[in-house]
Amino acid sequence: MLDLEFFFSAGRYHSTPWGRNVNEGVPEWPPSPYRLARALIDVWKRKLPGLPEERFLKVLEAISGTPSFSLPPWSEGHIRVWLSSNTKDPTARQLVFDPFVAVRRDTPIRMRFNTNPTEETRSDLAGLLERLAYLGRSESWIEAAVRDNGQSEGIQWNCLPDENATPDRSSPVFCLSKPKDGDTSGWFSSLCVTTETLLSEGRSSPSFLLRTRYSLPIARDLNHSRTQVTRAGKEVLCALYALSSKVLPKVEETLSFAERVRAYLMGIHKKISGGNPDGVSIRFSGKDREGKPLQGHRHAFFQPMDIDGDGRIDHLYIHCTKPFSDSEILALDRLKTVWQPKGRPEVHFILVSLSERHSSPASKCWESATPFVTTRHFRKGRGSYGEWIEGELLREMDAHGLPRPSSISPMAEVKGRTSRTPWWAFKRSRKDTLPLKGHGFRLEFEEPVQGYFALGSLCHFGLGLFVPRPEDEE
């Protein structure tokens, strides 16, 4: 047996599978032996030109065939970059996707070939791997090595050839096939062929490209951050997402956007629960098994946020007062997109973190980011309206266990870095009911308060959100 080990130093493997376009945003996983063979030719020609050709052919022979893989937990993602079109127009840009697989830097990907190379071939392969700087695109920095068979005892080989594997639990892997006539000299022309040559010859793939379907472990569905949290014995109460879209939703759409996210998440969890509507998480639905609303804010808060202050939602924060279960975390990980009305492009979610606590710093000064609303009605003869609405705010703060502020100042609008949005511009009611009146406040406390926190009758859907602000900022 020949065992290889790969560590991705940056924690990411950037690549595109054979036959796919980079702008499809689909990364290759696991790393293909055919790609490895092409990379070793490059290392040989540039860094070890003194290695005889016949010895290098033995190296290729050692990594031919269909290997077994030991894959760690991983997650998929992509980067979107607008690149210059190299024209006279400086504003001409082209959108390019860079798909990648994220893994832990200290956890290796292992590859086992059913071959028995000589010690000389093992040594040659080890020297080539030692000089291999990256695999895939140049961002995929790598540390690779040959391992003794004794060092691989107890390893679970969880990714194996399986042509009967279902599409959602499998992936095509491109391997290096052996020549039928035993003449390995043809490997070089196959491994070095260009797409232009293939097209001119009317071929769809090189001669020795072996496409094999591999079964993938269940760990494909688990975010690698979740694995770290579980190992550390921590609970997950908070999920933070970054949003990506050609047209991000405006902050005025906070309520409707949060409602769509909740509906999508409930649908995802329903599938995880076997399609049983009664199995949907009460933390996502906000209702018990009898359909009654949960009391005491025991269900999840969906809080869209405008972090950069440009008036558009760019992050989503989902948190709960009780830890999420494994199936709920799996649903949070599978939340990838949500539609937008009026023909606008869908919004993509990038899971940034799963954590046990709020990510906001503690602060003495907090300001409204979305309007505070209440379904209670003001009655004349019980003081001024300003006193009444402040009393409603304090009542909500008591219900959430927050300390009383030392001062409360009204705000007429949310103040972003490049935008100003009045409270009346926000959607402030559900299901086509009459909109509730919106209010904003600046709160100052004697001691720093940990956030984020949301207050009011629609606080679980993003309204009444307070965010920290520096005390010396006017």
Please outline what is shown here:
This protein is α+β, with helices and mostly antiparallel strands. The chain has helices spanning 33-47, 53-62, 119-130, 186-191, 195-200, 224-231, 254-272, 282-285, 326-334, 385-399, and strands at 2-8, 12-14, 68-70, 75-84, 93-102, 109-113, 142-147, 170-176, 209-215, 238-244, 301-305, 315-319, 337-338, 347-355, 363-368, 407-411, 413-415, 420-422, 440-449, 453-454, 465-468. The protein is elongated and about 100 Å long.
Give the tags:
474 residues; alpha+beta; Alpha-Beta Plaits; 3 domains; 5-stranded antiparallel β-sheet; 10 helices; 22% helix; 25% strand
Task: Give a written overview of the molecule.
There is one protein chain. With 474 residues, the protein is α+β, with helices and mostly antiparallel strands. Helix 2 (53-62) packs across helix 3 and helix 7 (254-272) packs across helix 9. The chain has 10 helices and 21 strands. 32% of the residues are buried. The protein folds into 3 domains: 2-73 and 102-216; 224-355, 2-Layer Sandwich (Alpha-Beta Plaits), CATH 3.30.70; 363-468, no CATH class. The strands form 6 sheets. Strands 11-12-10-14-13 form a 5-stranded antiparallel sheet. Strands 16-19-15-21-20 form a 5-stranded antiparallel sheet, with no helix packed on it. It has a 4-stranded antiparallel sheet with strand order 3-6-1-7, covered by helices on one side. The N and C termini lie far apart (68 Å). The protein is 22% helix and 25% strand. It is elongated, with a radius of gyration of 28 Å.
